Task: inverse folding
């Protein structure tokens, strides 16, 4: 499960933030999951619960989906990514490495593959709440 | 915050040496040197990974004649073993489609693959770099603390001029350089050797131009029988293992 690798990265990053910010207690971690990568929230949540260190056991992990906004560099068109328009193999390739979207997706207006992923690319930590 | 960067060190922790095969210029035989070096190290009994980081123009899969590789997942992506190498390339995901990526996309793709690939225990990870000293080179220097560079040039002074800049950058950044390989040599001139040594870098070897290499593309057995491969194996034995 690819989500496990991402969950490990999240836990490592949270540990580093706790250390850097000298938090005595960690309460909430908000994680954003961009639609482009099509991360399964339930698998990510399960992986996070399994990887939780003793120090994190009472922490609430909130996982929120974020829309993926794309902007064509050729014609300026903006649009939202939709998983529904992709076949299974293509969706899976983008799930592993979102950048290969440039190999499969074209601007719906002009057909260019030269677009910017403006928002909702991967997985990131949006917010952390704890006590110093 | 991007959590991926925090886990890259851990993903590479069980790898002995990480060797980036690089050049300032394209067309000097970097991918052939990288692939043959990985195969040669593997033939010596080492556990070796090959990572094709030339995202927009990958060719190591063509050199080895690889098609339709099945990826395995085990809490991450496990590189498939092909021709005895743990092998990762963007072509596992982009297939035959072009990958028109700008710098920011190359950085993101590179970080993603470094963060989710489970290489396991390897003696060597050989990385086939894109030409030049742009995003991929800078990202690797930033993210992979134990990286070492093996630089490829040809006898052309145009190629060497770019190598000079790359050597200078790596020296400034205190990144280890294993040395410079002069590929596709057609005479006995010592110009590149002398100029390399003048830069304070090690001249590893000259590799003669071998027309049999082109005939061996896609056939690893044939490739390893070429004079080119014998020279690369000598470099592997005397300068790398």
Result:
């Amino acid at each position: 499960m690819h989500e496990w690798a991402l969950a490990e990265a999240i836990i490592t990053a949270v540990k580093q933030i706790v250390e850097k910010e000298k938090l005595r207690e960690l309460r909430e971690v908000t994680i954003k999951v961009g639609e482009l990568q099509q991360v399964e929230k339930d698998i990510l949540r399960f992986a996070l619960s399994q990887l939780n260190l003793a120090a994190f056991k009472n922490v609430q992990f909130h996982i929120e989906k974020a829309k993926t906004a794309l902007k064509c560099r050729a014609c300026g068109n903006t649009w939202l990514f939709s998983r529904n328009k992709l076949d299974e193999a293509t969706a899976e390739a983008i799930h592993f490495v979102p950048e290969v979207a440039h190999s499969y997706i074209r601007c719906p207006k002009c057909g260019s593959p030269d677009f910017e992923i403006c928002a909702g690319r991967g997985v990131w930590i949006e917010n952390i709440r704890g006590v110093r | 915050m991007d959590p991926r960067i925090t886990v890259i060190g851990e993903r590479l922790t069980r790898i002995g040496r990480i060797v980036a095969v690089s050049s300032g210029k394209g067309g000097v035989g970097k991918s052939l040197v990288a692939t043959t070096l990985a195969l040669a190290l593997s033939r010596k009994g080492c556990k070796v990974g090959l990572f094709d980081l030339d995202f927009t123009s990958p060719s190591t899969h063509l050199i080895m004649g690889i098609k339709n590789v099945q990826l395995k997942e085990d809490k991450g992506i496990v590189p498939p073993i092909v021709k005895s190498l743990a092998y990762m390339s963007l072509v596992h995901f982009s297939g035959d489609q072009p990958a028109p990526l700008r710098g920011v996309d190359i950085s993101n793709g590179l970080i993603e693959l470094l963060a989710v690939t489970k290489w396991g225990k390897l003696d060597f990870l050989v990385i086939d770099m894109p030409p030049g000293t742009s995003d991929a080179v800078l990202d690797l220097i930033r993210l992979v603390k134990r990286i070492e560079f093996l630089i490829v040039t040809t006898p052309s002074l145009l190629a060497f001029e770019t190598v000079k800049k790359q050597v200078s950058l790596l020296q400034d950044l205190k990144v280890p350089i294993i040395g410079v390989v002069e590929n596709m040599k057609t005479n006995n001139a010592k110009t590149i050797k002398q100029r390399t040594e003048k830069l304070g870098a090690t001249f590893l070897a000259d590799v003669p131009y071998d027309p049999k290499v082109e005939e061996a593309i896609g056939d690893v057995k044939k490739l390893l029988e070429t004079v080119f491969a014998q020279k690369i194996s000598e470099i592997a034995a005397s300068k790398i293992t």
The CA atoms of residues 153 and 182 of chain B lie 5 Å apart. The interface with chain A takes residues 1-7, 10, 55, 71, 73, 75-77, 90, 93-95, 97-102, 105-106, 108-109, 112-113, 115-116, 118 of chain B (CB under 8 Å).
